[in-house]
């Protein structure tokens, strides 16, 4: 009986591991929709903001650059005027897609607030994925005395040939930036902490 139970548990664990590593078509399509713009940059604008403290987003030119692409990773710097500190990193993990925000200082070192983000919790759609804050990010928000951020969810939308959007939501707060995919712009500088 004990041997039979052990075999059953092993089979269940194996099947769960196998299921977690299966491709998720909607996420693969989402990833590919972004990757098709690799090497191009696009200008954006704030289309939703119901809070203060993001004046730099509203007062500066916003440019996203799909800069580096591989089968499982996309690096997308987000430039705010002359601030080249932000890079969105999307990574296929085998159980979904992870979003991280890599924030750097002008000398290339990591900002104190960096590598926060989230992971998909469902298949999403080919045009839209959501990333609720992960455990690392929640702990980091508490450490940095911004506990209100533990409820963060980041969203990305892409409609090829039309627009890409980055959105942040949490109770009582929303920020959305839309980028025009119909008009590529000149490439921005290399983001802080990265090399050509």
UniProtKB/TrEMBL annotation:
Q: Which UniProt keywords apply?
A: Signal
Q: Does the keyword Signal apply?
A: yes
Keyword Signal tagged: yes
Would you tell me the protein name for this molecule? Secreted protein
Tell me the first and last residues of the signal peptide: 1-19
Q: Which domain of life is it from?
A: Bacteria
